[in-house]
Amino acid sequence: MGGVNWRRVTWLAGLLTLASVAAACQAGGGSPPAGGSAASAPAARPASAGDGAGDGQGPRAGHGPQVSQGPSAGQALAFPLPTLPVALAPSGPSGLSASFTLGWYTADNLSYAAARVRALPVKPRIVNYYLVWGRPFNAAFARAAWADGVRTFVELEPWACDTCAEGCDTCAEGRDPRLTSIAGGLYDRYLMAFGQAIKAFGHPLMVTFGHEMNGPWYPWGDGGSERATPAEWIAAWDHVVAVISGQAPGLTGWVWSPSVEPGTKPAGPYWPGDQYVDSVGIDGYLRTDTETYQSVFGATVAGFHRLTTRPIWIAETGLYINATTGRRLAAYVTAVKAAGLAGLLYFDRRPYTLRRADEVSLARALGTAAR
Questions:
Q1: Cα–Cα distance between 138 and 154 in angstroms, integer?
Q2: What is the pLDDT of residues 277-288, one digit of tens each?
Q3: Whole-prediction pTM
């Protein structure tokens, strides 16, 4: 979700409206379930996003990027998750770190919001920003975050390019580049420059490309306007990973980031293989009082554990805000930790903006005193 994705908002609003109408019809105009409202009634969730698809063996023979600078087949990319202080680092099954990592979206895609990060009662160790296609790597953001002890997570979105006037190749097909063209090398000059800027920055960071690909709200997604297939998405992902990592070896941790939001399809067909992924970061929200970690993420996480041994974490999430948010947030974080996930990134923007009391509840759930 790059800032507010109005395509996704409209899609979800339509689903929720239909669900509300259906529920009202079935109930004869009765009241909504306790703890929610008709507008927030949960829609039926799709099948779990890892069930029965993918074998975890990576691209088949002949598939994958054709860039010599990229990682060779079977070579894992270096990706140490940044860690919280020892007090927040219970032992766990993660293959890269035993620590639970807190991430935060500050709703600022242009600059590192140091004041906002420092005002939180518990300091996050990851801060993300969303970047539309054609824009350069934001080195100033990354430098400011690194100086503050925070790692940058760049979410590169292949759409809404607005740099045509610069005369480069980043807008060769208009505002939304096609995945097949990305995989075919049409945008390599942009990707190489992106990787070179990361190398010049010189510190590790996290990157994803074309996230939430199993939903229909982005052009590249399943059912999106591009009508791209999972194979086309994988080919583009592999190529982006190879080109950027080839320019910045050892500095990019690649986060494969599907969604569990209503309207998504199973994500297994989009799995590119362990050699092109460093962690699995799932996007999903608790949109009602009754939704929990288990009801929203449980089945999907179980499916992904059958797909890969890479660390799994929640890369974008938020809660329905009301008087019970603090209690529900604490229970949510506790369940995420108990499930052995490597971390959680909170999307702190309307309508999910936490109040101070909610932030304190989060800090306590993480096992630290509020600042």
A1: 9
A2: 999 999 999 999
A3: 0.75
